[in-house]
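Hey team,

Filing this mostly as a record. A colleague (T.K.) asked me to run one chain through the structure pipeline before their review meeting, and I want the input and output archived in the tracker in case anyone asks later how it was produced. No errors, nothing strange. Just documentation.

Input sequence:
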Amino acid sequence: MARPLRVSPNLGLDDWPTARMSDHAHEAARRFVINLKEAMGGDSVLSTAKRAGVDRNSLRLVLEGRTWPDARLVARLEAAFKKTLWPGYFEE
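Output structure:
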């Protein structure tokens, strides 16, 4: 049986990641991207991917909100920046 398709974090919105999301999971992914972009500063996707030891295309797709970040990606980025990037639980 095939796994059901998941909707992308950005839901196809053009204003990702500035628009707040009503679903908690989508909002968590959005906040992660905001935190990551802040941590990256002016660094490129390529230099960030090399720094964290992750695939640059995976990183790019996560930043664009086209795919969900997995635990490995989050953990490697947090280790690279020595900073918590995943927002954890929050009230909406």
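Quick notes for T.K.: The radius of gyration is 13 Å. The longest helix spans residues 24-40.
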